[in-house]
Amino acid sequence: MLKTNKVLFFDGIEFENIILHYIDHGKFNLAKKALSIGMDQHPKNIELMLLKSEILLFEGAFKDAEKLLVEIEILSPENEEIYVQRASIFSKKKKHKLAIALLYKALTVTENPIEINNLIGNEYLFIENFNKAKEYFIRCLNENHEDYQSLYNLLYCFEKLNQINEAKIFLKEFIDSDPYNEIAWHQLGKLYIKLNEYDKAMSAFDFSIISNESYCSAYIEKGKLLEKVDNYQEAIKNYQISFKLNSPNAFISHRIGLCHMKLGNSTLAMNFFEKSIQLEPNHEQSWIDLINLLQRNNELLKSQLYVRRSLEVNGDSIELWRKSAEINFKIKFYNDVCTACEHIDSIGNHSLKTWKFWVDSMIYLKNWDSAHKIGLRASKSFPNNSSLLLRVAGCKIRLGKKKEGHNIIKETIKRKNITNQIRKKINAFFPELLNFNL
After folding, report:
1. CATH, domain range 353-438
2. Which pLDDT value is given to residue 438?
3. Is a pLDDT exceeding 60 seen at residue 224?
4. Other Cβ atoms within 10 Å of 350 Cβ, number
5. Alpha-carbon distance 112 to 114, whole Å?
């Protein structure tokens, strides 16, 4: 018909199937064309009108969709889809209570309440009425034990209501009626961990695995629990099983690396951290742990190389920029320290340690003016820090502002909180201050 541009007659159900076919394949222009022809032939066909409102909703034309749905409701007040679509409009407008009222209407006419109960539960989640949401997700699960999204939502409600024991009781009753439900056992194990009942958690994960030997999540959670109780060898075994069941991923490689690190297997730990990074180049924690391990092994130049590589793919990581500042400071690459600290400053997240790296690098570079300005900024964030104040004082003296510098030193000495470590550092920077008996 499209090829010949002739108009042929189709039944309403045929138009419906054609429109749904185009929608399923993302061909909305053709769906709209078929809908237009269908509506011309069957102007009051309820299913076609509902499809039109659905397309209007997809396009964001809420006002036109609502107007059409009101018209459909007059023609067919017993059709649940009308109330579901109208509820969807109100939900998108964040008018969740009105959406709930319409879904209650849908419940009175539907022959399949599970979907409606789920929608009501989700609307109650939006307004954070977790008690009511819980009620409707329980209804869903009573009808269908395999409605896992409702199970996860229900457990979320229990968590928000701080009802861990109630969640545990529910899961145990749920398992009584469905003893080989691996997901319920898995979730029960996670609850036992929150309650610090590790033996029961381990048993729950074992039952989850017995229920379904290919359920990857149970092996992962069991591995994490084995790490908690310092059984790293067994943890590695469980993580390796999860590898076989699923394609390798960065998270598991990272966990195995951590286990090897705890066991003192530095080379294996590095291999798994590197594997994690290969699988997911922006896996920040793997970069950090790898760099930390290199630092502990005193491989500072290699750790600097890895920091540079990590920042190519994680340029917004505050922790990696801090690592860059720290490592470059240790190997006396002071210009690189300043670059790292400037990035940290642009992100707006300074620690005392970072400020000191920046000020001290400027001092080593004999850039007294910049060291002074950075020191003043740092002392605004840490006004009572003697170490910073003495650095500022030293810079002032080097810049020819001796009186200002001397006054800061005298005020700082009065506080009597200058440690031997501070004395040693300041005297190394500014030997002329030795006369002040810091």
Report:
1. 1.25.40
2. 56
3. yes
4. 18
5. 6
Enter the DSSP assignment of 214.
T
Residues 40, 103: Cα–Cα separation, whole Å: 31
Radius of gyration (C-alpha) of the chain in whole angstroms: 33
Intrachain domains 1-111 and 353-438 with the same fold: yes
Residues 6+ apart with CB under 8 A from 4: none
Domain ranges across the chain: 1-111, 353-438
The rounded distance, in Å, linking the Cα atoms of 355 and 342 is 10
pLDDT tens-digit series, residues 307-349:
999 999 999 999 999 999 999 999 999 999 999 999 999 888 7
Of the CA atoms within 13 Å of residue 187, those in its CB half-sphere come to 24
Is the whole-model pTM more than 0.85? no
Helix (H) or strand (E) holding 181: none
Structure-token pair, residue 310 = 């990590």
Residue 123 · residue 91 · CB < 8 Å: yes
- CA dihedral over 378, 384, 387, 393, signed as positive or negative: positive
Q: Which CATH architecture has domain 1-111?
A: Alpha Horseshoe (1.25)
